[in-house]
């Protein structure tokens, strides 16, 4: 009877560890043991072991080592979470400091507004013999094609006049620019582009911080190459 009572006590501990009671006394299943539940179960296991066949020291040490490892991993996770929170806070504080400033960042869009057309900077990886800029509206329709004259290796500025292929003023808005350059062998040359605008806001998209520009364009914070004081301020 004593052995059966001890087995019932151990079973009771297991059941209390596997369920938590809500304020309405409704049992809710739980898949995890906290520190207190583990130690209670471990002590009960020691107290109710068969005196003629006690737990092997190796098994006992293995259980304790496993518990210690879980504790260390739990503490590590908490530390990592804390570091991520601090890092996110630093990123947000850094991003806010950009508001009101002009930035140059990776991008292929220009903005047509009351003040004209924003510039686009392009870099040729090698000397080109010909290069063309293709301007598309927000619907993806080609509105203009411009032959470029700055064809040497390095960075150049493309300043579109805001007119379509019929020399008519285009509507205000954002336009994408695609640049294709060829060398003297007719092979394509790598071209990278940068855009410029004033930061007015920020948001998080797909785990990255994105700057919102005054004309509605967006650029990735990590792609910013230059920062200037807004000349209009």
In round numbers, the mean pLDDT is: 77
Say what the CATH topology of the largest domain is.
Answer: Immunoglobulin-like
Could you say what the CATH architecture of the largest domain is? Answer: Sandwich
Got a strand count?
15
Q: Helical content, roughly?
A: 25-40%
* H and E order: HEEHHEEEEEEEEEEEEE
* Percentage of β-strand residues: 35-45%
Main sheet characteristics: 7 strands, antiparallel
CATH class group of the largest domain: Mainly Beta
Output the number of helix runs. 3
Rg calculated over all Cα atoms: 33 Å
Q: Span from first to last CA?
A: 88 Å
Taken from the alpha-carbon principal axes, the silhouette is elongated
Q: Which class do the helix and strand fractions yield?
A: alpha+beta
Q: List the uncertain runs.
A: 2-11, 13-25
Number of domains: 2
Domain FlgD/Vpr Ig-like: 107-179
Function: Required for flagellar hook formation. May act as a scaffolding protein.
Keywords: Bacterial flagellum biogenesis, Cell projection, Cilium, Flagellum
Protein name: Basal-body rod modification protein FlgD
Quick take:
It contains 3 helices and 15 strands. The chain has 233 residues and is of the alpha+beta class.
């Amino acid at each position: 009877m004593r052995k059966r009572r001890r087995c019932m006590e151990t079973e009771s501990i297991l059941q209390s560890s596997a369920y938590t009671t809500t304020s309405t006394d409704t049992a809710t299943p739980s898949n995890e043991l906290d520190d207190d539940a583990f130690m209670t179960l471990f002590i009960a296991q020691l107290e109710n072991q068969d005196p003629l066949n006690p737990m092997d020291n190796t098994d006992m040490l293995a259980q304790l080592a496993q518990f210690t490892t879980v504790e260390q991993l739990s503490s590590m996770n908490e530390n990592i979470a804390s570091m991520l929170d601090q890092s996110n806070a630093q990123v947000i504080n850094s991003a806010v400091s950009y508001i009101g400033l002009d930035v140059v960042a990776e991008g292929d869009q220009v903005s047509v507004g009351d003040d004209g057309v924003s510039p686009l900077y392009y870099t040729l990886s090698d000397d080109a013999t010909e290069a063309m800029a293709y301007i598309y509206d927000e619907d993806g329709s080609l509105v203009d094609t411009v032959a470029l004259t700055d064809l040497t290796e390095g960075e150049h500025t493309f300043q579109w006049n805001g007119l379509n292929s019929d020399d008519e003023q285009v509507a205000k808005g954002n336009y994408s620019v695609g640049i294709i350059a060829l060398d003297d062998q007719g092979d394509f040359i790598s071209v990278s582009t940068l855009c410029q605008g004033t930061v007015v806001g920020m948001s998080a998209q797909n785990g990255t911080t994105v700057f919102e520009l005054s004309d509605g364009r967006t650029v990735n914070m990590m792609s910013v190459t230059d920062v200037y004081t807004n000349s209009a301020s």
